[in-house]
């Protein structure tokens, strides 16, 4: 695993870690036969260990990023499996607004995760999205006022800019 670039902003570093975990998990998934959600989660855990060895983030930060990535993949895969829609619809905005590499990685990982969706649906619904967490690309909607927050790359979830609430759900086009 390559070192993470050294941004000045700690939130940017966590966003880069999210992308790195996703990249490592998808690359490793190409090498194995079992493409189920649990297998992908194990690959994320393995990538988390590699990231931990770099020593650029605390164990707590790495655990959080890993959890955020798993949550987002469950959410995307759940949406795709239940609706039959494509990944771009889950994002809630034009695919051209996120990088090709990130779009391809996330789409591949979400496709692999669809197998275990029914078991994880409840967890995803309970987890939701909260201020202070990191989320992958897509649109989150404030649970209190309906304000939309658009994420074109992994990023920190701020309080709602309209009402300052701290809980959100994903918008599907």
From TrEMBL:
InterPro entries: DUF1451. This is Zinc ribbon-containing protein.
